[in-house]
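Bug #2210: token dump truncated for Response regulator transcription factor?
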Amino acid sequence: MRLLIVEDDDAIAAPLLRAVQREGYEVERVAAGQPAIDVVTAGGVDLMLIDLGLPDMDGLDVCRTVRAGGYAGGIVILTARDGELDRVVGLDVGADDYLAKPFSLSELLARVRALLRRAHRPAVVAETVETPAYTGPDRRRATLSDVPSAAPAAPAPPAAAPAEVPAPSAASSSAPTASFRVDRAARRAWVADQELPLTAKEFDVLALLDEQRGAVVTRETLMAEVWDENWFGSTKTLDATVGRLRQKLQDGLAPIKLDTVRGVGFRLEDA
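Reproduced locally. Full output below:
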């Protein structure tokens, strides 16, 4: 796994770099926004840890730019801006998680492992099972709403060997259309033999819509199930996630369409 740290403060970057390296990840650090964009564009970055207060540009613009360029890896924002509006905007521009400074290194590393697990990378899951230190602190449940559901499923991906992918079990996959299928157990979506590069939230939205294929799923249901039942405020993050998901389905030539039902919610149906 290759991680990119985008942080201009040496006092923060140095211990963070050492902590990530101790976990066995390959890691690179840059101190400004444009170099970060260049590294991500060159490819090979699985997850990016980014500060918003960069010297040459705002970290939000970096997130927006790399997502627009097709980057499908994880993005975790690390910042002193801890207001609700800042968190919402960060998620809107493509971040998968948001951690306010000061933060615990153990909690950050737990969130990194969770994102990499949910990005369908079996090697990370296998390593997590073998290393007791990978069990994150209980306080994660209070700040990261999707971790409790993700944690029990951690051992599942290693069983999803490549040979089994073309024929997922009926219990874990729904496939009314032969060339498109969603495997909930492995947290993977396929068009023919090509896997769609989905983020954790994009997969959760797709799985929920696919579960009720042809029916309208309300915005309130999606926010409660995918984000937090106590979510209160803007739902623009849902629109941003659906927009990216729709584009990936179109780019992957998926034989389904994701429609917006104005004023109600969204519907996934066969094209």
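Output looks complete on our side. Residues 121-178 have pLDDT under 50 and may be disordered. Marking as cannot-reproduce; reopen if the truncation happens again.
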